[in-house]
Amino acid sequence: MTASGTTTNPIVSVCVPVRNEQKYIANTLDTIRSQTHEDFEVLIFDNCSTDDTVEICRNYCESDGRFRLFQNQFNVGQIYNFNRCLAPAAGEFIAIRSGNDPMQPDYLKKTLALLRDDPGMGLVYSRNLQIDASGETLEKQYLDASYFETSSDEPVAAAATVMKRFFHPASFFGVYRKSLLDRLQPLRHIFGSDKIFVCEASLYSSIGCVQEVLSFERRHQRQASLEDIFSEDAVYELPQQSIYASYEGITPIADMIWGFAVMISRAAIDNNAKARLCQISHAVLGNHYSDNLKKEKQRVLGIFANNRELFTNEATNRILNLNRHNYLECVKRIQFTFPQDHQLSTVSKAIAGLL
């Protein structure tokens, strides 16, 4: 990885992971540079952009010593780039920003005020407005009920609040106390990883929300898609006869529920709280995404039906076993949500018996 710009000793580190953001990145960086709180550094992590993103960002680094540009040597994928951008942050507080989402001049000032007033608060975000590709405000906005605040006094209740009310990424793209971020596990390589990240944060600290619109969420065709989560350059390339890659992302909701369970099991809370949270996550997420989960189950069973001859062949070779292992992992994720399903159980036993 290469970096350009100068280092500082700031109060806030603003971390901006980007890839092919030439259309919006200048607007975003302008709104960061215009903050009324001026003691900050900006760490831009470019994930092998193929447009003019790097050149635009380099111009900001050359004109303002608070900006630094890091360039990945190859496409590491969206999730890994998010995790990488946090590593060199030197500030006491860390703001995570999207490369296409602008903010108001007082964003840092007002979020920092809440954090400084309450040492037990580890994350603060603000209300936001959705804008279109041209920056015009959209008529349809998120409901008031989707914004939330939590208390660290009741971690189970706080985590349940995040599960029930996290419907847009405003809270994830907030300002964190670095001491809190240092406790959190990396962003996961699954759908809903931002929701899991904020949920874990709620277990260790309070979360606050500035009741004023200080940021914007740009809605455009490249947003909120699984398409760019996995990196073609970073995954292991398999021969044409392998159907391994076709399993990526076929169970996003089931993977998210499993991700919550893994996070809870590793959390620094007592076992009773873990058990209660697992029950809550299974009920809340399973109920909210019930239709999606049923479709995912049918897709997983359909893969077995369409590849029965391949999977049940007694022959053993590396590619065939990779197919079996990866498919079995998908089945287990779905089984976690549908533990009593007879078809899933039968398929799971059949595949496991050949490994």
Ranges with pLDDT <50 over ≥5 residues?
224-241
Oligomeric state of this protein: single chain
Order of helices and strands: EEHEHEHEHEHEHHEHHHHHH
- Output the radius of gyration: 22 Å
Question: Structural class, please?
Answer: alpha/beta
In whole angstroms, how far apart are the ends?
A: 39 Å
Please summarize the sheet with the most strands: 8 strands, mixed
- Content of β-strand: 15-25%
SS field, number of helical segments = 13
Order of neighbouring strands in the sheet with most strands: 1-4-3-2-5-7-6-8
Shape: globular
Fraction of helical residues: 40-55%
State the total count of DSSP E strands: 8
Q: Estimate the mean pLDDT confidence.
A: 89
